[in-house]
Specification:
Layout (H helix, E strand, L loop, with lengths): L30 H25 L3 E8 L2 E8 L4 E7 L2 E8 L2 E5 L2 H5 L6 H4 L4 E3 L8 H4 L2 H12 L10 E3 L5 E5 L5 E4 L6 E4 L15 E3 L4 H16 L5 E2 L3 E14 L4 E13 L6 E13 L3 E11 L4 E9 L11 E13 L3 H15 L2
Parallel strand pairs: 6-12
Antiparallel strand pairs: 1-2, 1-11, 2-3, 3-4, 4-5, 5-6, 7-8, 8-9, 9-10, 10-11, 13-14, 14-17, 15-16, 15-18
Length: 365
């Protein structure tokens, strides 16, 4: 008998109908999420375009409100400025020309900045330091300066926040970016910055209030700014220089009396010493007061004034006249002088005006 032998070899393998395979891929963004992303992109594009437009303007025009009154400040791309801004709830006039800042403000404003001469400074214009304002117009409020600071601040906003649209009183639709302490730009092109919170410029900007509005600029805006700035410079007069301080020292006092007329002249020698400011563009206004007393004739007061170069000596006379009785007699006369000085800014107004004309000609005004 022949016996056959067969070997069955079983090979393990997948079962038909049970084949599985791992696939790599992305399920993709949902339609709702895509809409949100598009809205954020639209807002980001509007903000970028609005700040770029501000950056390229020849001048920037800012508005703020103080107790229901509209205040306006205009600044060129080179930092020349003129107008009025609110500072700590007070109205402060500003003129910044030829790299010099001048302000006109109340005595309380100056006292709030530690000045003991606030009463004198409040009587007119005073040359000031940029630190006397919450922000320096020549750096933070130029078109490019403001755009740069706002751009940096906007980068810190919540980039995933849902864009908020609203309408202004005139019907203009805007994006409200960053909430109450953010900025507003128009939703429609050409995009324009409408307003911003001053704290976006600097933490100290809160002293300027809660909102600064921004005007659109036309060629007429530049021309009007030039003309009004020219008039403002002409009205500066001889401003005090709050950046400098003068100390006055009395070095000599001569008293001469005329018995026939009863007049006595006190001639006082003084020296001034100036600290701070620019001694090349300032003078020292010195007021000397002398109390002249005579036995049996009482006392009288006279004053004398002089303008002197910083760190120099001066002589100041003043005269009183006594009513002397018609008899032969001798009287002992004494004088007690005091002197104070203020530093004044010496301005070449015509030269400044010429610089204004040159600057605005380049701006197209």
């Amino acid at each position: 008998m022949v016996t056959g032998l067969a070997i069955l070899t079983l090979v393990a393998g997948p079962l038909l109908g049970g084949c599985q395979r791992a696939l790599s891929g992305d399920a993709g963004i949902s339609a709702a999420d895509q809409v949100k992303a598009d809205k954020r992109t639209e807002q980001r594009t509007a903000v970028d375009a609005a700040l770029k437009a501000l950056e390229n303007q020849p001048v920037a025009v800012f508005h703020s409100t103080l107790n229901g009154t509209d205040l306006m400040l205009r600044v060129t791309k080179d930092g020349t400025a003129q107008g009025t801004i609110p500072v700590d709830g007070q109205s402060v006039q500003v003129v910044q020309v030829d790299k010099q800042l001048f302000v006109a403000a109340s005595a309380d404003y100056w006292k709030g900045r530690g000045s003991t001469a606030g009463d004198r400074y409040s009587k007119g214009w005073a040359r000031a330091a940029a630190s006397d304002l919450p922000v320096d117009p020549a750096t933070s409020l130029t078109p490019s300066g403001a755009a740069e600071k706002l751009r940096k601040s906007a980068a810190g906003f919540d980039q995933l926040a849902e864009p908020v649209r609203s309408k202004l009183a005139d019907g203009t639709e805007v994006f409200e970016v960053g909430g109450a302490t953010g900025l507003k730009v128009t939703t429609a092109a050409p995009h324009r910055l409408v307003s911003f919170a001053p704290t976006l410029l600097d933490a100290k900007g809160k002293a300027l209030g809660t909102e600064m509005r921004v005007d659109p600029v036309t060629p007429d805006t530049v021309t009007k700014f030039r003309d009004e700035l020219d008039a403002a410079v002409g009205g500066l007069g001889t401003p005090a220089d709050s950046v400098a301080q003068a100390s006055i020292t009395i070095t000599d006092n001569k008293l001469d009396c005329n018995g026939g007329s009863g007049s006595c002249t006190s001639t006082v020698s003084v020296e001034n010493a100036v600290v701070g400011g620019d001694t090349k563009s300032s003078t020292v206004h010195i007021v000397m007061t002398s109390v002249v007393s005579a036995d049996e004739l009482g006392s009288q007061t006279c004053t004398g004034e002089v303008n002197a170069a910083p760190n120099t000596a001066s002589t100041i006379p003043c005269t009183v006249k006594f009513n002397v009785p018609n008899r032969t007699a001798q009287y002992r006369v004494t004088s007690l002088p005091t002197a104070v000085g203020d530093v004044l800014a010496s301005l070449d107004v015509n030269a400044i005006k010429q610089k204004i004309q040159s600057e605005f000609s380049a701006l197209g005004g």
